[in-house]
Design brief:
With about 300 residues, the protein is α/β, with parallel strands linked by helices. It folds into 2 domains: about 170 residues, Class I glutamine amidotransferase (GATase) domain (Rossmann fold, 3-Layer(aba) Sandwich); about 100 residues, Orthogonal Bundle (Arc Repressor Mutant, subunit A), CATH 1.10.10.60. It has 13 helices and 10 strands. A 4-stranded mixed sheet has the order 5-6-10-9, with helices on both faces. A two-stranded parallel sheet has the order 1-4. A hairpin with a 4-residue loop joins strand 2 and strand 3. The longest helix has 19 residues. The protein is globular and about 65 Å long.
Length: about 300
């Protein structure tokens, strides 16, 4: 690092299937330092974020997969940045292992790679020399993690200060926006989701929902979980917390007012659930994201 006066620990190179890769319809191109065929061995492979439709992007980059697999077999560690996790998962190296990716692509990732354990909200996962990071700027935290691993804590702290990065951020939960998983074909469950979303201020029970849509409770719970990847209770809670987040962001209401608006009367239960979902207390969230501020 220049600021420390030390010699670089790594030689960083951009490697591609070809020397020049045209992107965005040819409006610009990226020039690789070396092609895949020119790299026999490396210590760490970074898979950058993909772009566009994930299934198409993975298919377009399949020629990279054998090379990634070969490098890992030869001892290289492999790290994916953001939605680069989709390409990493396509190699099979993540099967049975934990993984992070952008919070907005969780449902799609689970659908494409059911054998991978996606850790919701995680900034970094590490298992058996394979790393992954959460959404967008979370890759900085993964890079700091690797700097600390290959050097020491002092160097990682120095890098975090130089690049103004919060070194100990370990969750992307505060950034996640719950939109409800409706990319399924169960029409009754979609109607149940819409009912929950339109009545989040009320106390809604599983029995009430099952009866409203004329489905037996056990069948309703099974179908809901299969369709949304959430239990009914989890879904209700996430909708209520999402409504609370929006209120904190855009109104002057205090914690108790927001709590009552979304159907909670137990302050401790609300605070506990809010922190579990967002990683922040209600006060911390309001202070961080409120557009209006306190009176």
């Amino acid at each position: 690092m220049i600021v420390s006066g030390r010699k670089p620990l790594f030689k960083v190179e951009l490697v591609g299937a070809r020397k020049e890769i045209k992107l965005n319809g040819g409006s610009y191109s990226v020039h690789a330092d070396r092609t895949l065929a020119e790299v026999e061995h490396t210590d760490v492979v970074f898979i950058p974020a993909l772009f566009g439709d994930m299934k198409s992007a993975v298919e377009m980059n399949q020629e990279l997969v054998p090379w990634i697999q070969k490098q890992h077999q030869r001892g290289a560690e492999v790290a994916s940045l953001c939605v680069g996790a989709f390409l990493l998962a396509s190699t099979g190296l993540l099967n049975g292992k934990k993984c992070s990716t952008h919070w907005g692509f969780g449902s799609e990732f689970r659908e494409m790679y059911p054998d991978v354990e996606l850790v919701d909200g995680s900034i970094i996962t590490e298992e058996s020399g394979i790393y992954s990071s959460g959404g967008a700027n979370s890759y900085w935290n993964l890079l700091l993690h690797l700097v600390e691993k290959y050097t020491d804590r002092e160097t990682a702290i120095l890098a975090s200060k130089y690049f103004a990065i919060d070194i100990d951020r370990d969750s992307q939960a505060a950034f996640a926006m719950f939109k409800g998983q409706k990319d399924h074909n169960d029409s009754e469950i979609k109607r149940a989701q819409e009912f929950i979303e339109g009545n989040f201020s009320e106390k809604i029970s599983v029995d009430e929902l099952a009866g409203k849509f004329a489905i037996g409770r056990r069948s309703f719970e099974r179908r809901f979980k299969n369709a949304t990847n959430n239990s009914v209770l989890e879904y209700i809670q996430r909708i209520k917390i999402e409504a609370a987040k929006r209120s904190f962001e855009s109104s002057r209401k205090n914690i108790h007012e927001v709590m009552f608006d979304v159907g909670y009367t137990d302050t401790k239960a609300f605070r506990t659930l809010f922190k579990k979902v967002t990683g922040l207390t209600p006060i911390e969230y309001r202070n961080k994201y409120s557009k209006i501020g306190d009176n």
